[in-house]
Amino acid sequence: xxxxxxxxxxxxxxxxxxxxxxxxxxxxxxxxxxxxxxxxxxxxxxxxxxxxxxxxxxxxxxxxxxxxxxxxxxxxxxxxxxxxxxxxxxxxxxxxxxxxxxxxxxxxxxxxxxxxxxxxxxxxxxxxxxx
Length: 131
Known about the structure:
By secondary structure, the protein is of the alpha+beta class. It has helices spanning 10-21, 28-32, 44-56, 98-108, 124-130, and strands spanning 60-63, 71-74, 79-83, 89-92, 119-121. It is globular and about 50 Å long.
């Protein structure tokens, strides 16, 4: 942060602490609310400003899981799969989705990434219960 001319303010540090404390991607509201008591609460507007800055720096990314609010997580080289039925969001290493990427490239010429919008499918449990 400092190498890029930015301060590591207490508000920015609080957002980062919340993201480290979170076990999964979280909303800005959850961060402002202290992630279930794991970190101190903070101002929602400040949380959004800092998330925007951290995302611009590549430290944080957000993912849209269904019709709900954007979820934020530390940028750790993960992509996401979302169950369309139960809403379970799974973070997976990018190589796990390489076969899907290759199939899309071969069939349609698209280069897919599943960081901002997850791959939507049915999880094993939901697929089995639908049969």
